[in-house]
Amino acid sequence: MTGIDEVLAGEGSAAERHEVPEPIPGDVTVHRPNLSRSSVVSVRVSAAELERLHTAAERAGLPLSTLMRVWALDRVESEDRGAGGDVGERLARLEREVFKRGA
């Protein structure tokens, strides 16, 4: 076994032995809403961009991945409705698409 295999085996064993210190109270409903989601998307951002995203998520009271998913899907829906921003943003997007195709 290699060093990493030993570390992983040790961590796995420790996780199997871990016990929850207190039972979940009976009046608490546990749910896992993301179990139905089957795909993970990775996005590369700079450290400064990541910090801005974390700050926005904290302000919204949401986990970062939830905030990013909401923003991305909201943008897709806006684009589908043809309401992807103000006139200036829409014109800039149109110009980018036109000049990208012409290149």
TrEMBL record:
Residues 1-31 are annotated as: Disordered. This is CopG family transcriptional regulator. It comes from Tomitella fengzijianii. The lineage of its organism: Bacteria, Bacillati, Actinomycetota, Actinomycetes, Mycobacteriales.
